[in-house]
Specification:
Blueprint: E1 7-13, H1 16-32, H2 37-58, E2 66-74, E3 77-83, H3 101-108, E4 111-116, E5 122-129
Antiparallel strand pairs: 1-2, 2-3, 3-5, 4-5
């Protein structure tokens, strides 16, 4: 897909209903770029985990939070940046969930970076190959 790029920014409320909206956006980007079906599934799953983390953990005790998504393609890869301006990454031994989201994202992506967002919150940057590498014969 040389020459085809996506540059999408989306901001939605950090509520459960928004997860489906962002997931569909990511799916549409992948399909428009001709990503392999397996890659599409992996990208959607990893992105959903990141969005769910924001909804469940970023804005505990607040109802005014947002999920920000930036999506770009470079050299047959899709880069997704999921940002919140919530509480940031802190150990939460009593938090809901099994704590498997970030390890799953790391396993599905080719690169994962988690940093504190400017002004507070968290940025999760994920990079994915849009196509399986060619197989040697």
């Amino acid at each position: 897909m040389t020459g085809r790029t996506a540059d999408v920014t989306l901001v939605v409320p950090a509520v459960p209903d928004s997860i489906a909206v962002i997931r569909q956006t990511v799916s549409g980007i992948c399909e428009a770029l001709g990503a392999d079906p397996r890659a599409v599934g992996d990208i959607k799953l990893a992105a959903t985990e990141a969005f769910t983390n924001v909804v469940l953990h970023a804005y505990a005790g607040r109802d005014d939070g947002t999920i920000e998504l930036d999506a770009r393609t470079t050299d047959h890869h899709l880069e997704l940046l999921v940002r919140d301006h919530g509480n940031g990454m802190t150990p939460a031994p009593l938090a809901e969930g099994l704590g498997l989201g970030l390890p799953l994202i790391a396993a599905l992506s080719t690169e994962l970076t988690i940093v504190e967002a400017e002004g507070g919150g968290t940025e999760v940057s994920m990079t994915f190959a849009l196509h399986d590498p060619p197989r040697e014969q």
